[in-house]
Structures are given as structure tokens and as C-alpha cells.
């Protein structure tokens, strides 16, 4: 089964096509690298899949279920159960590390006692046990990204979208996070779509590389 199926998908910002008639199939369990220059449509691709950008035309299906048809969102973002890891972590500044995760779990209908247990388990998995009460302003760049990864995994997604999550990190932290992503892919069978400006650092993890330019697929291999 395909985890993601795009059929002639176009996303616009005014008169500009951010994605232009893109058709793409991503197999379940694949780790797809998406590369290309700035403005090529990489982030727009992720946002369309997550439901954060509304297509102008075309169809999008996730795991065999249609989620958008033209400008109609058939399944809203919060019901797609997709994990999204942003470049800068995008943590809410007023919430603790544990609170970030519990907030997502609360909106997924998880009971309070289970929310705390699940949040602490995830923080331990990303090697941040004991960091539950820490606020984002007190965390290093690598710690922020690990909290963001734990939050992205809170709802047990089958699909994880990565928008240049390694960009702000130094070499040692990039290597550590890449190791975690490799573990996720192997242990949980997650499908990963990984936008990066530095494909060499993640190429050994990837099953395929897609190159975008001007909102269109230039190469897939």
C-alpha cells in the first residue's frame, strides 16, 4: 500500500504555483529524501500532506484514504495522525517539555493519567528523562529538537514529516538525531518524508531521493 498518493496536485499562493501538477507515490515504510533549492516546493509538499496548505487542484490520499480533493479538505489536519518535525522545533514557549506532549495527547482524547505516563516515556526515549518541567527557553537546540520529536510521536503516527530538522544542529547533535530517526524507521516501520538541504548526511537512511525545482519533480531515484 502507498502511504502517500498525490495525483496532479497543485498548491498556489496567489498566482504563484508552489507545487505544480505533482504526482507522487510514497510506499508504506519508505524513507524518502526530498531535496532542491530554496523555493522549490519542499515545505509546500509537506504542508499539503499534513493538511496545513490547501491544494488548488488535484487529489491526495493517505494509506488508501482520500484526504483532499481539489480545494476540499476531506480529512482535517488533526485527524490525519501525522507527525511533523519542524526545522526549529516550533515548541510553544509557554509550555514545559512535558506539557508540549500532553497537549497533543489531550486533543487526541487521551486521559490525564495516561497522558503524563506517555509523555514521560517519550521524553525518556529521546534521552531527556527528568526534563519534563523544563521550559523551551532553558533548552539547547538539540534538546528542543528532541522534545519536538517526542511531541511528533505522541499520537503514534504512521507517517512522519521532517522539515530540515537537522539544520540548526552541530555535527554531533545531527548524528545523534539521525540515529534516532533510523531507529524509528526500523523499529516502528514508520514512513518518513525528509526534507533536507544536505542529502549526504541522511542518504544512508533513505530508500529514495526526490528532487524538486520550481514546484515540479525534476528527478526521482
Textual characterization of the structure:
The chain is an alpha/beta fold and 221 residues long. 29% of the residues lie in helices and 30% in strands. The protein has 5 helices and 11 strands, in the order E-E-E-H-E-E-E-E-H-H-H-E-H-E-E-E. Helix 2 crosses helix 3 (112-125) and helix 3 (112-125) packs across helix 4. The longest helix has 18 residues, at 171-188. It is globular.
What is the rounded Rg?
17 Å
Distance between the termini: 19 Å
Name the structural class. Answer: alpha/beta
For the largest beta-sheet, the strand count, sense and barrel status come to:
6 strands, mixed
Number of helical elements: 5
Mean pLDDT: 88
Shape: globular
**Relative strand content:** 25-35%
DSSP summary, beta strand count? 11
User: What are the secondary-structure elements, in order, as H or E?
Assistant: EEEHEEEEHHHEHEEE
* Biggest sheet: strand arrangement: 7-8-9-3-10-11
Which residue ranges are poorly predicted, with pLDDT under 50 across at least 5 consecutive positions? none
Percent range for helical residues? 25-40%
Amino acid at each position: 500500500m502507498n502511504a502517500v498518493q498525490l495525483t496532479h496536485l497543485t498548491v498556489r499562493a496567489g498566482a504563484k504555483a508552489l507545487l505544480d501538477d505533482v504526482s507522487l507515490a510514497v510506499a508504506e515504510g519508505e524513507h524518502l529524501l526530498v531535496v532542491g533549492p530554496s523555493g522549490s516546493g519542499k515545505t509546500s509538499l509537506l504542508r499539503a500532506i499534513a493538511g496545513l496548505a490547501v491544494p488548488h487542484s488535484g487529489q491526495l490520499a493517505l494509506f488508501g484514504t482520500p484526504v483532499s480533493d481539489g480545494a476540499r479538505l476531506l480529512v482535517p489536519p488533526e485527524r490525519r495522525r501525522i507527525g511533523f518535525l519542524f526545522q526549529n522545533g516550533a515548541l510553544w514557549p509557554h509550555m514545559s517539555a512535558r506539557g508540549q506532549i500532553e497537549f497533543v495527547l489531550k486533543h487526541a482524547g487521551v486521559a490525564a493519567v495516561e497522558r503524563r505516563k506517555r509523555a514521560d516515556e517519550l521524553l525518556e526515549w529521546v534521552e531527556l528523562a527528568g526534563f519534563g518541567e523544563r521550559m523551551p527557553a532553558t533548552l539547547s537546540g538539540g534538546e528542543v529538537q528532541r522534545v519536538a520529536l517526542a511531541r511528533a510521536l505522541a499520537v503514534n503516527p504512521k507517517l512522519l514529516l521532517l522539515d530540515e530538522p537537522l539544520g540548526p544542529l552541530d555535527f554531533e547533535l545531527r548524528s545523534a538525531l539521525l540515529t534516532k530517526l533510523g531507529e524509528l524507521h526500523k523499529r516502528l516501520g514508520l514512513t518518513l518524508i525528509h526534507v533536507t538541504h544536505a542529502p549526504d548526511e541522511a542518504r544512508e537512511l533513505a530508500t529514495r531521493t526526490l528532487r524538486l525545482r520550481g514546484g515540479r519533480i525534476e528527478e526521482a531515484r
